[in-house]
Request: fold
Amino acid sequence: MTFNYQEALKNAALSMVRVKSPTHLIKMIARFLDREMGISHTSIIVLDGQKHQYVFCDSQGEKKVPKGLIKLEKDNPLIRWFSSKKEANGLIKKDHLSLQYLNSLLQDKAVLSYDKTLENRLVKIKEYMDTLKATLCVPGFYKGELLGIFILGEKTDMTEFNQEEMSFFQTLASDASMTIKNAEYKDNLLQKIEELEQSLDEIKRLRENDKDKYLQTILTFAYMVDARDPYTYGHSEQIKKLGLLTAHELHLDLSGEKEKILTSALLLHDVGKLGVPDNILHKKGPLTNDEWVLMREHVRTGPRILENHDDFKEVSVIIMHHHENFDGTGYPYKLKGDEIPIQSRIICVVDAFDAMVSDRPYRKGLAYDHAIAELKKCSGTQFDPKVVDAFLKIIEREINV
Reply:
């Protein structure tokens, strides 16, 4: 019976979607390959980002390697074969390395004469593959970074791996790398949310005991967001000041708890960015479409962090909508006009102004008059005209522009 590789990939992809833990995903793939592919043994090594080395996360089959026993440093010849950006006259195959191909290179004098160091590198790689009883190694990359390698033993029927099988392994490794990376992002986000929830519990306790300590803890919490990027440090405090002044200019009702709710929303409007990966948050240049999707998720992540706490339910609604546009072209729900909470419309204006006049790694901040011109230009589309008018009065009065 012919093995249906397309069906196998489809089933594997469906399984990957359901698996939440990177560790469980790796075990599932190793067991699948061992059970379905007729291989003497299967091992998977994965990059440990904290220790900067590759470790055996799972191994299955008659010649399996004990988990965690072998660790490969980044300068290991096998790792460097796949991760090196240097090409040896097109000899380095980034998508796989078979023992058969390796032996053919070692026997080709013309190839070995191209680079005096090549033979020594190939010999060391063969030694590692022999030690691991590896017949085929298939790497998995994510955005150019080597995340892991499938280490596959010989086939039980003693035939060579054919091109269809190698293509199957390559696709599986690529899909697994993307799934593992996404799972890591989710794990990190869940951990951050748990830490934030602990902080919020502490805030609630302090609020009940001491109002001054409560307000100070809110400030500390907001600074946690700003501190992730030195170029935005102090951003939340500036937003709070400008936002409250604008609310007063609009004669917004701030009686009772309303001022505290607006103050908290102004300070915590970007709390969801704690769930944005550092490589996106700190990128020195334009974001890709995929990166923008993750960045925009911060308006959903923030409310998820806050919504289970009674003190922050109204705050959650405000920060969720602070990137909605007055004309309905914003996100996440494309609300428009009065559908958007007035507090959110205030944050939209003051946040945009502060972003425009602040320096960033990739550009200098705009002059105030240019930023004001931009607010006027986008009044009625991105921004609520009433909020823009009130804000400009504040700017003229407070900053003397």
